[in-house]
């Protein structure tokens, strides 16, 4: 069955050595170190997660080709890379060297989600919550123009970049940070207009500007946008999406240390319907595979219910229940007749947050097979 849906999967590029990360954590450090060190924190807790393919270096074309070929054969047609630029790109080896280095080109497309949140030292995080700021995600106009010029030249120009109606899809994670750095909504509005004009001058019919909308802060600005629906409309975004279910589930509804996956699904399906009515622009639903951020905790600290990553996990996120979530997202898209039938999934490889599609030794290819069974092949 040919897939008529646009299935985008978030990709966290934390599994290759990066010079800036090495300065903080030691030479050749990657998030695999956190995953290997993870321990069970309560009875029945399944840690560490063990990748079926081993601890690959994602910045190598060989390793990345295996990922994208399997993704394509299971109905995924693009990765949405978490993309970082803090006065220069970082953690970009998975995309620049791995994905774009595949001989003959990758079997799927890619897009960027600009992860412009503050970068805290949470690898691992202390129970005290005293996790120092490493990099600020706040940028001014000159830096914004430099970043977007680089995106247009380096990525939009690629034949492998994902577009909607010929317009490159570019997603922004932290709107409060962006408003703060640009000096208010009006100045941000002009900066986004300039971005659009430059994309058009580069030969595209336009820019598809997406916003990741969240209600509960986990990693991101602790500020909130006043009247978000009106503000997002005023800024002329083209669509709204989510990154992970945890961004919307009310804190008071969590059960520590484990919350039922199907309860969070039920709430988020309601969120899809509510948000689709609130916004005049399309809302693309998000399906989350799971949640367990305990590998990012200092393993010798007590596991208490404090704040990210000391927080509840999701239980019951079996491939069968994940398949149910995908079916509900598909029904939501079909009922609303979205101009682009797009669904995002968290995530390809958020191993240290317990949300990953890559095969592991417990469930094998079960989550990828659920995508293929619901949506077909790419």
Describe it.
There is one protein chain. This protein has 378 residues and is of the alpha/beta class. 34% of the residues lie in helices and 16% in strands. Strands 1, 2, 3, 4, 7, 8, 9, 10, 12 and 14 form a 10-stranded mixed sheet that branches. It has helices at 19-25, 32-37, 61-73, 93-99, 141-156, 175-182, 185-201, 228-234, 261-278, 319-336, 366-375, and strands spanning 6-11, 78-85, 89-90, 109-114, 119-120, 133-135, 163-164, 167-172, 208-212, 239-241, 258-260, 286-288, 313-315, 342-346, 349-350, 355-356. It has 11 helices and 16 strands. Strand 2 and strand 3 form a beta hairpin. The mean pLDDT is 95.
Task: List its traits.
single chain, alpha/beta, 378 residues, 16% strand, 11 helices, 16 strands, two-stranded antiparallel sheet, 10-stranded mixed sheet
Rg over CA atoms:
19 Å
Mean pLDDT: 95
Helix fraction? Answer: 25-40%
Number of distinct beta strands: 16
Helix and strand run = EHHHEEHEEEHEEHHEHEEHEEHEEEH
Structural class assignment = alpha/beta
Helix tally equals 11
- Classify the beta-strand content into a percent band: 15-25%
Summarize the structure.
The chain is α/β, with parallel strands linked by helices and 378 residues long. Helices cover 34% and strands 16% of the residues.
Record the SSE blueprint.
Blueprint: E1 6-11, H1 19-25, H2 32-37, H3 61-73, E2 78-85, E3 89-90, H4 93-99, E4 109-114, E5 119-120, E6 133-135, H5 141-156, E7 163-164, E8 167-172, H6 175-182, H7 185-201, E9 208-212, H8 228-234, E10 239-241, E11 258-260, H9 261-278, E12 286-288, E13 313-315, H10 319-336, E14 342-346, E15 349-350, E16 355-356, H11 366-375
Parallel strand pairs: 1-2, 1-14, 2-4, 4-8, 8-9, 9-10, 11-13, 12-14
Antiparallel strand pairs: 2-3, 5-6, 7-8, 15-16
Helix pairs in contact: 3-4, 5-7, 9-10, 10-11
